[in-house]
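Dear colleagues,

As part of the handover before I leave the project, I'm documenting each prediction I ran so the next person doesn't have to rerun anything. This entry is a single chain, and its sequence is reproduced below.
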Amino acid sequence: MSKALLICNGENDPALLKQWVQEADFILAADAGAEAAVRAGLRPDAVIGDLDSLSPRTRKQLPRTAFIRVARQDNTDFEKALDWLVSQRFTHCIVAGSTGKRLDFTLGNFLSARPYLQKMEICFRGKGWSVWPLTQSRRLAAQPGARLSLLPLSACRGLTLRGVKYPVQNRSWRPGQNTGLWLSNQATARHVQVQLASGFLLVYLED
């Protein structure tokens, strides 16, 4: 097993969950993310977290699912899930339901991805968009004409962007600096190349 679908307790579209599960080898729900999975007609292989948000009714509907309780309170259920996926040597993770409901958790989820990127490729997905957290260069599949934005979460060096309407060559960038230059670009090819010498940024790409 190498690719997991991680279902969190944010905004989830049942139709999209059914679509994304076709790409995954394993379904992991973060605590009450299991509720969203069940509503979509999916049965997670495992549910992880402190399990304080999971209804008894949902647990009864998942007799073959493994429930992994992690009692520590100094990290989120999302981080507990990523810790477990890394320990099981998963190399790719599609994250669903990471946004919506609470803005603080949405922002926290994006920030929390950074420590895991050396061991696992992570892609946040929603209706009509994907967000890739990056600390190194990456080639991303894209639809020509799709909008693309870059959002730095730390100082970035050696940033090059190809396959877009407004290419970038070996630039440095930090949060709050010339933000408008990096928003609402447009893919011109079926792959966009993001090169990054150092730093941490989010790549927002519409479907």
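The chain has a mean pLDDT of 94. The helical segments are 14-20, 33-39, 56-60, 77-87, 103-112.

All the best with the project,
I.
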